[in-house]
Give the backbone structure.
Amino acid sequence: MDERLPDPELLRQGGLRLASRVFIRSDIRGTAEQVRRFREFAQVTDPLADPVVAVFGERPEVRRLFETALYEGIDAVENAPVELENLFREVEATPYWLDYDRLERGAKAITRTGILGLFPLGDMSLMGGYLASRATKTLVATGEIEDLASRRLIETAAWWIDVTTPGNLRRGETGYASALRVRLVHAHVRAAMRRRRDWDYEAWDEPVNQVQMVGTLLLFSLVFVFGTQLLGIRYSERERADILHLWRYVGWLIGVDEQLLPAGEEDAWRLFWLLTVTEFIPDEDSKRLARALVRSHGQVGDGLLGKIVSQLSVRVHSSISRLVLGKKNADFLEIPNDPLTQAAVLTTAAMNFAAETARRHIPGATVVREFIGGLERRQYVGRLAKIFQLDRTYARHMRAA
């Protein structure tokens, strides 16, 4: 009988240790055979998106046809290249498990968190993702995260809001289009990495492979749910399931192999276990990216007041990262350690928890919170769009790749 392997280090530290004890009801540990099978997906990429990007290189006008198909469907594109048609025929063949009512409920639950919901994105998802050293190689190679950390963080947040806004994942809507555009960005990055003579396939696997894509999916879904709960947000069991259902569909759109799409919370934790035991092996590049992300948190203002706010921003974001990742991982990434701010974060989380408990018992409070959260998110993106001139087509990333 193939015995289950012991938990990896990441699940024995910090907030994730708490999660393993409180939120995980069954034994999620995998066997050696399951680890081997999971690792096979590190050699698999996206057989539908990669050919489309190759056609872009040969026929730049196909990019315009892609944009038409995003909003009007592939049937609206005359004389579509076979590569483009193959991609959209698959995407438009709605998976049997998709439930649009669940998408809406999941989006509303996410929207209700407002700006607070963005904290896990940078402090837990992105920072934690830097522990996966193979995945960081494309980031270091392109220079995007290290040299333009603030802008990249903002663009990621804007994309995340696009795909988690109620109604946005319907065919032809903003979130649907954003998911498919990012799928092509991944394909462009893969093509660029494959042109490099220094890409080490044996050590780093295929660039932007299926393991890394599902890892990103879990960081935006499972880690978001856990992270917001750590900060005091409360969800019903159905809300948690609906949030993961939403991200299952996003995973479908961005090209994650259906074998890797978790059907529920327990599936997601089992996948996360496999990721932590196989991918979370930090190195010096992990440190470089972590330092760049910490610096970006300190670039929020000028003048005396701006400096004070910047220092506070670094302390708060770093404290959240340390609470989740644990001392050993946080020390390796050289994340600043401020016990007083960590205590303040936990106190604030307790206050949020009390307010959330009250919300669940006050008629109409949840609807009001969803409205306020949506307003916060729209204002946030509106301000950032003016400052950073956000490009929702991601043309800059495709040109760079």
Observations:
- Residues 9-45+100-400 form one domain.
